[in-house]
Write a structure and sequence with these properties.
Helix content is about 40%, strand content about 10%. The protein is an alpha+beta fold. Strands 4-3-2-1-5-8-7-6 form an eight-stranded mixed β-sheet, sandwiched between helices. It is globular, with a radius of gyration of 17 Å.
Length: about 250
């Protein structure tokens, strides 16, 4: 078990708990290893208490091949995300309250983007995937995550992906931030969407910055095989600033 990655997974789990984005045994984190295996948080453990030694390694079918604990029941969702996105190395699932409120209401808050910077960081869609019991087909999730970096899981929570731990966490943070803004704006008449032509320019800047599925594909990262064992941290904020500068 890679000690550096194990410490990162444990730290991310504890961060989710500290932010009150999970409760009880909610939420899970995984990272793709370089040999068709995945390092994952265990089931039935508060994210506050996750430590490197409590993690498990699973194979491509979700079977534990290293570690003494059981893997979480939602590992199939993580494996689906990895199949759909060979460019990502981390998957994070949590229940941040504002974003999860939209998910349980069966609504998406980002079909009509309203903040320019967020379009560059997150794209123009956070798809809502209909509720499904653990063990059900993951086809809908695979279709959604193939074109987005974050999805709302109906009656469930949020799932984000990234090339590194920080990016996956920042995307979860941004989804929750936008969900809260959308909820606060609703009594005031709702958030006013950005002009369509501006969204198109922002999405082009996003692609050129190498962000999102299309941007990473253009950079040759999709379908290029398994990502590195410990990919370097992506300075997303710097990429966003650069993309916005290009817009003038």
């Amino acid at each position: 078990m890679d000690e550096t990655l194990a410490r990162q997974v444990a730290a991310l789990c504890q961060d989710l708990h500290a932010r009150a984005w999970v409760a009880n045994h909610d939420g899970n984190v995984s990272v793709r290893l370089g040999d068709g295996r995945f390092l994952a948080s265990p089931t039935a453990v508060s994210k506050r208490d996750v430590r490197p030694e409590s993690l498990v390694v699973v194979d491509g079918e979700g079977k534990v091949v290293q570690g003494t604990r059981r893997v979480f029941s939602e590992m199939a969702l993580h494996l689906a995300a990895y199949r759909a996105r060979p460019d990502v190395s981390w998957v994070v699932h949590a229940h941040p309250p504002h974003a999860t409120a939209w998910a349980v209401a069966g609504e998406s808050f980002w079909d009509a983007p309203f903040l320019a910077e967020a379009v560059v960081s997150l794209g123009d869609s956070v798809p809502l995937v209909s509720y499904a019991m653990p063990g059900s087909s993951t086809a809908a999730l695979e279709a959604a995550i193939s074109r987005a970096d974050a999805v709302l899981l109906g009656n469930h929570g949020v799932l984000t992906v990234g090339p590194d731990a920080e990016t996956a966490l920042l995307r979860m943070e941004l989804v929750e931030h936008l969900a809260r803004i959308a909820a606060l704006a609703r009594p005031l008449g709702g958030a006013r969407p950005l002009p369509a032509e501006d969204v198109a320019k922002l999405l082009d800047a996003r692609r050129k910055a190498g962000l999102g599925p299309e941007g990473r594909a253009n950079a040759g990262l999709t379908g290029a095989g398994t990502p590195p064992l410990a990919p370097p941290t992506t300075d997303v904020e710097a990429l966003v600033r650069d993309a916005l500068r290009r817009l003038g």
